[in-house]
Structures are given as structure tokens and as C-alpha cells.
Task: structure prediction
Amino acid sequence: MPRSSIPVHRRWLTAFAGLALAVAACAPGPAETGAGAESAALPAPVIDRDIDLDKLVAAAKKEGSVTVYDSSGDIVEVAKAFTDKYGIPATGVKSDVGETQEKLTREYQSGNTTIDMALYESGPSLVGELLPQKVVYTYLPGDLIDDVPDANRNPLTVLSKAMVWVYNPSVFPEGCPVDNIWDVTTPEWSGKTLMQDPLGKPYLIEWFNQMASGYDKQLRAEYEENFGKPLDTSAESAAHEWVAGFAGNSPVLTSADDDVSAAVAAPNQTEPRLGFLSIAKFRDVKNKGYKMAVCDDMAPFVGFQYPKFGAIATRAAHPNAAKLFMHFVLTEEGISPEMHAGGISGNSAVPVSKNNPPGLDDWDAQLVSFDRTELLSDFRNIEPMQDHWRLSKG
Amino acid sequence: MTRTLRGTEVDPPPEKPPARTGRGARLRYRLGVARREPTLFLGIGLVLVLLYLVIAPLVSIISDGFAVHFGDDFKAGQPVGALTGYYLWRVFRSPVSTELFWQPLVNTLIVAVGVTAVALVLGGFAAFLLTRTDVKGRKALANALVVPYMLPSWTFALAWLALFKNGRSGGQVGLLQAWGVNTPDWLAYGAVPIVICLGLHYFPFVLLLFGNALRRLDAQLEDSARILGASRGTVLRRITLPLMLPSLSSSTLLVFGRILGTFGTPYILGLPVDFNLLSTSLFSAVRSGQQGVTAVLATVIVMIGVAMVLFDARLVRQTRRFVTVGAKGAMERTIALGRWAGLAATGAWTLFALSVVVPVATLALTTVTITPGVFSADNFTLAFWTAEHLPGAPGFPHGVLRGTELWSAAWNSVRIVGMAALICGLAGLLIGYVVVRADRSPIAKVLRQVSFLPYLVPGIAFAAAFLSLFAVQRGPIPALYGSIALLVVTLAVTHLPYSSRSGISAMTQLGREPEEAAQMAGARWLTRIRRVVVPIQRGPLITGIVLPFVSGIKELSIVIMLTTGGTQLLTTLSINLVDYAYAQMANAVILIIAVLSFTITYLTQRLTRTSLASGLGG
Result:
């Protein structure tokens, strides 16, 4: 190697580093225009008015198979039920929302599609990215559409699910040890609360944002109720203040709800703990002998209800099978495997699950209700809320 | 052979230029030569392909860091696609830059220094025992102590959790906690366990590199110094260490570089206490769809990797004058351990126990217990291996050996890694061929350097770069995302440096004569490669295939971002199961990978009568 090569390297490095720093110094200006691609109108759903189920089944059979992603493992059972009914091999894959979003997007861009359809739990990124980018589209089967309320159509809500605060009734036989959501920000509960890491779970960030936009008053009132003085904060909203207090109270963050439920409610647990998890985990009460109950008197709410949306990949390799699968999960037969532990179908003709955990009787009154008009603004607030969480975590 | 005669008649001898000049004739002549002696053209082709596969991904990912991506326009205040400093600002200067970059950078340095130190101490100790002392059972020890490297690196992390896990990460606690021993957070998660686990995985690296150098060191040099009156300390400081510096710095940087790109262990042990390395920070940026931030982080990792290797190259260049293998007679001196013999052997075997027996046994135990640490008959079960239906694990509702998931992942692993390894081995041999045959031509020099380039790029950053390049169709090159081709190419390129090294050193030993003899007999180039070079180089070729295979089969950092529904591998299956808190099944899959990797290495060693540890055990 010639002797001069090192100075050349160094010169390049210096130049690059200088350039990098110079550019890094430029903080972004205020977003004045807001005319970005993400604010483009939400594409209209594809309504299959003249649906002929027999023809659809025949076309789907010809395609041979279908692959569906969902963040809940119940999808494996749904896929099995689908295969049993139609004889079309279906694969249900449990996959985190972030992973599903990334794979859907990349598969769409590359044209090598393996995911035909997704049941998807992050409304903001669906409305802000996947739908406007045409990675996926909303499909509504015509024969069921009359039973799908307008509010559930675009994007299509397949199922409403709930996240709730839970405790272990054998550790706390008197009932839930807390009755106010602000309690979990106090030193008494430091290090004793569990939930999935919000940075990995978009719907938790979504919960924070929905609280911030719709529940400011209730949160302030409950703060005063709990601490005897009005909330005095410079934070953007009472929800921001709560998030900061909760994040700073060293909650135990996990990568799966199963770790939350096991730590709170496994038969060998004796520690005083509170968990925030999906009601789907109530299946373990029966399956694994878990001791788990909903904190049903927690004010102002015991949890959050959120929709699981359904969307078909625009470039699906099995488009008809995907449509048939979407039709399937909009029927009672198809969605019931996902409703073992409660849930409300997006199709109003499907009866409400009888398996809602005890104590959770009135979703609208007990849970933060989901305001889908906020989806786009929630999309913009994902990163600020994630950053708020990051910075509040001690 | 009739073709032979015809061949010699038709092709003009290369020494005599044709009488007729002119462009067409010269070209035809050159082509004629090239057909029989295509080394140069082969070299040019290889260089071009490699440059594309190494440089283009890097260019692609670096440029990703400077353009506004979809959905970020309102954050950056610029339209999609515009040139922006937003991502640099976010990573280096914004309020969250500490979480995204600076803290992970500090953590990475801490872990890298720690792991390197642990690996050097353990590996150095083992190398010294095995090469310089009369410790009992050297051969057995030499084989035993390289086993940790055959296990997937995050085996140790899972075993660590199974032992030390406390309430801080939710789920069931580990064995110690279940037995009433409180494990503090610093011991259960974060820097300390990551350093120990990775140290146990990487010390065989140091043992191999350092051990071989130590063995070749002429003991007479040390003796001379002693005779001249130098104390033992002075000899160590002034003679042994300086001579060992090249191998010391190489092993240091090798380990250090690996840490930059390693993913599994820090992901498993860091998450509960929010201890991020650059690699895990990069991964979470990928998973949260932040392409710009991903690009900037990957670029930084690459730059650190490159800086390290340049530093190493400088260090080695300065010390190259010290030759440890001379033409003069060398002496090996083994130190009689005397009364220390027992202690030394115990120490070495303890190291083996800690780095192999304990983790594997712990993991095996977890796969047959329902609640960790409870030893009653009803707590033991084979359900996680063989049950037809497992309640409470809806995402994977049966034992790992049932259903299709494990088998299709295993088939994918064998198939994809096998193809990559095959490409690696053949490409390595060809590179060796060109580098040795076209010696002195600039192409050989360039090829030697270029084939080494992937070595500079830490695995996970390379994966991010490949993801960026092959996400969409570019010109004639189709989008590879979602296809097994992407995995094959990425694995092949990242493992090429090892194969090309072995290819080059093997070809150096093969003279031109056998090939020239075949050429005289009229064999064309392909025939010569097929019938002469490959058979002679069978041993190195197999090594050049097996080493990437063994390393690839337990590879996670590179493949974690690239697998899709149809291309699930054993390693990604295992990490998915970890994510879904199906600990028993995750551990079962890891054991399967470990057994697979160990068996293949062992079989190859038996078949080719080579050994990773060859020479170490005296």
C-alpha cells in the first residue's frame, strides 16, 4: 500500500465527520405545510356488493393457500377452523404489530408477497402509512356489510379487544389494591407494575394518545380525588403527566403479555403486583390455573378498548383466499377462537362474547373508548409520545 | 482423447503474438488467451460482483439516512424524498439522542471492552496451558475448549436467564430465585451477564488465534533473554508480549468487531433493564419502521467497524517485522507444572464445565419442567417437546417436535445456509486461485482486499444495508426481499472473508505444474478446475464450506431482519419463541441448533481428519 494512503483515509474521514456534524446541527424546522403524503385522504374501502360466496370459495380453492398475520396467537386456531371449513390450507402466524407492518411494507415494495392478510392492531399506522401507501386495502364483503356499522367500516374493525389492569386475588383477597389510576404513579407501587414495553407495542402508545385527546378532564378529576389537590402540571395533558409518572415509577416492561400474566397470576406467585394486559390472557385462568381478576373499581377506567383491524395485502399472492378469510373472520364461526376470553365483533350480528372476564361487564363505561376520528392525529403523535415515554423513564 | 489434439492445434500459443495487427485481431487473440487462461477475466468478474455486493448496500443505506421517508415529512418539515439532516439530528442531537445513540454507544464500548478482556484472559490462560505446559489431557482439553464456540452465542444468555432471572422482567423467575436466592438486577441483566455470556462464547476464538501464535513462538528467543540475565517479568514484557502483539491485536479486534454486530445476547439480557447496545438500538429502529434512524445507526456501526480494522492493520504493519516462524531451528519448551498440575487441569475443566456443561444442562432441564426450580414429579413433562396440544401457547400450540414449524425451519436453515456455504467455499477457492495465479497483477491485489471487505462490516449493519438495497427492484436486479436468495447472498457475502482466506492459503501451496500438465494434455480451464484443482484442494474446499455452514447455522444477527413468513430459520424461530415468552420451547430449539452445529463440526472433523483445535493439543 502506498504510504500516502492513510492520510487520504483520514482526510475522507474528517471530511465526512465534518459534513455529518454540520448537517446534524440542523434541527428540523416547524412543520408548516402538513401537506405530506400521510394526510392524503384515506382510500375508500372496496365493497364487494355482488359477492358470490360459492364463486369466491372456488377461486380461493384454486389459489391453494392463505397466510394471515395477527399479533394474537389465537390466529393459529382461526386458521385451522378456516382450513376445516373450506379445505384450503391456511397458516396463521403470531407476529408483533411492528414486525407485521415492516414485513407488509417491504413485501409490497419488493413484490415478493407471502402475507395475504393481516389482523392488525395499530390503527394509526394503518391509517397513516399502510392504507395511503396502498400496501393493504380494506375489503368489505357485500353479504355482511349491512351488519357492519358505518363506524367500523373504514378501516374495517374485525374485533374490539381490551387491555385491563389485573391483580392476583389470592394475594389480595379483599379485591384490587388500587382504585385510582394515579395510584400506580406513587412510590408504593414502584417496580411492582407490569406491562409490555410501549416502545414495542404501538397500541399502548395509542392508548396514551387516546387518553391525552379524550380523557383529560377525567384524569384531572381523579387526580384531585386521589391526592386532594388539583393537578398542577406543565405537561401537555393530564395523560402526559400520568405517563411520565408511570414511566418514572420503574414499571417492569416485558416483550409479551404472557410474562405479565405469569408474574402477576401464576399459581406460585405471592408478590404484590399489578399488571396491564390483554383480556385474552384470561384463558390461562382455566388453562394454567392462574389467579387473575380485573381491577374493576379502578377510576376513571379499568383499561382501554381498541380495535383489531382487518386488511388485505394489495399484492396478495392469494387475493381470493384472503377475501374469503376476511369474510370468515367477520362471521361468528371465524372470530370465536379469538373471543375465548371476551371481545366484541365488528359485525354487530355476532353476539357479544359470553367469556368476558368477570368484572368487565360494561365496556363503554369501564374502558377508554376508542375514538377513530383521532387516528390520523394519533399517527402524528406516535413518535412524540414514544419520545415522551423514553425521556420520562428514569 | 481426440479433443486434446484438436485443442492444441487450434489455439495459438499465447507467447507468440499474431502477425496481423489491428484491433479486431488483437481482441480475438486476447479472447483466445482468455478462454484458456481466464484468470484475469475471472478476477475482474469477481471484483465487480463483490464490489456490488459490498459497496452498493453500504451506499444504499448511507443514502437512506439523508432522505425523508414516507410518514416522516411532517416531522422533518420537508417533503418525502428531500435531502434532510433530520435523522442525523434525531440520532445525534435531539432530546432522545441519549436513548437512541449515546447511551447505546457507551454500553457497546463497555460490553466490547469487557468481553474482550474476559475472552483474552480465559482464552490466553487456556492457550498458555495447552501450548506451553504439560497439563494433563491436552488433546482432550483442546477439543473440549472450542465447543463453546459451536453453540449459538445466545445459548448462554438463555441459560443465564434460566438460572438468574428475577422479578424484573416478568414471567417466571429463574432457578436461583425459585430456590430462595435473591439475584440483584445487576447480576441478572445488563452489562455483567452480557459480558460473561459473550466472554464464554468468544474465548475459544482467542484460544485458537493466540494458541497457534504462541505455539509457533520460538522458545529460544525467550531462553536467550533469560541467559542474558533478564528476569521472567522482563522476558514476558520485552520478548513474549511484543512477539504476540499481532495475534493479540487480531484476536482483540476480531472479538471487538463481533460484539459491535452481535444481537441475540444483548437483546435477551438487556431488555429488562433497558440496557441497549448499538445493535439492539438498530434493531428496534428497524422494527418500529424508522428507516432513517436505522440508516444512521447502521452507518455509525459500519464506520466504527472500519475504523477498528484500519487500526488493526496499522498495528500489524508496524509489527510485521517480527517473524515468529523463522528458517532457523525453533524449540518448543513445555513448562512442567509440577504441583500446580492438578490445579491447572481443574481450572481448565472448570472452564469447560461453565461454558458448556452448565448452560446446556440448565437449558435441557428447563425444557422438561413446567415451573422452573420445582422438583416434584408432577412438574416434569415432555409436553414441550412432544405434546400434540399445549394449552396456553396459542401461537405454537404443540410440542416443538410436532407440527411443521420446527421441521420447515430446520429445512430452511440447512438449505439456505448450505447454499450460502457452498457458494462461499467455491468462491473462496476461485478467489484464492485468482489471487495466487494472477499474482502481481493489480486485480489480484484488489480482489484480495475486496474479498476481505465484508469483514469490516458488523453483521447486523450489513443485514440492514442489504435490506435497504434489495428492498425494491433496481435496474436488472430484482427485489430480493422475501426470497431465500436474499438470505443466501447475505450469508455468503458475510462469511466470504473466512473462505477466501482459506482459499488463498490453500492455493498458495498448489504449484502451477499439475494444471500445466493438464493444459498440455489439452484440458480446458473448466476441466482443469474440475478435474485438477478441486480434487487436490478437496480438504481446504470442504473446510471453506463447513466453516461458513457451522457459523451460519447459528447465525442470528444477520438473518433476524431478513427472514419472512416463508423463510423462518431455526435461530429466528427460537428468538420468536423467546419474544412470545414460550421459554421452554425457545430453549428446546436452541438445544436442537447446538446439537446440529456440534454434530456437523464433529462429523466433518472426522471425515476430513482436520480439527479446529489441531496443533493446539500438542
Summary: Chain B has a mean pLDDT of 84. Chain B touches chain A through 67 residues (CB under 8 Å). The radius of gyration of chain B is 27 Å.
